[in-house]
Amino acid sequence: xxxxxxxxxxNIRKLYHTRRGEDVEALxxxxxxxxxxxxxxxxxxxxxxxxxxxxxxxxxxxxxxxxIMVDHEMVTRPRSGVGIVFQRDVLLEWxxxxxxxxxxxxxxxxxxxAYVDKARDLLRLVGLEGFEAKYPSELxxxxxxxxxxxRALVQEPGLLLMDEPFGALDALTREQMNVDLQRMWSLAxxxxxxITHSIEEAVFLSDRVLVMSPRPGRVVADxxxxxxxxxxxxxxxxxxxxxxxxxxxxxxxxxGVLSEK
Length: 261
Description:
The chain is of the alpha/beta class. It is built from 8 helices and 10 strands.
């Protein structure tokens, strides 16, 4: 089992420069700590910098100010041990399901034979046993996203970054994916940073929920989720979960994101 990675975000600010020469501030003075093995979700309105924060943690872009530490090392570029899942599955249509899962192994010139069993185990865990030779065009949206998650997990990353991975799925498929992801995380023992617009999804999945303000994004609340695991459909009706969801909605009302009427 991989050891989860810790994350320290210290006074992060991110500016984007427009073609007109203007500066747009996406994030302002963001600080938070994520312990190794935690599942932390980030919720906030569109344009508040959620995805920017994930890209900064991944090392794909650099902050304008502040610093990010992953496992006590400063992030200056993409590093090993980090897996990423985007909203779009970005599967390669000409590769089979198994070959898509094994793509990171080939890119890093690792031994394919050493990871084939791991890839098959992951596919079996998400209900895709028997689909190894199928192609993406033969899969539903939920199945494709399961393949994308398996691809991110095949190297057993200590840190898994997920940017709205279920946003394009129908409600029933999304609910099942929540359960599947929870099970995979409990077995993997890694750290997960999960970006979502769904308040209920964030609370259902997480140990903690970070609530972001409108742009420029700031962390306006860091909420602990005190619910037993594993969580199934019954947990969605738990008074603690419902109360947290209502509290987050109220925070968005206070910040003008949601109307009270």
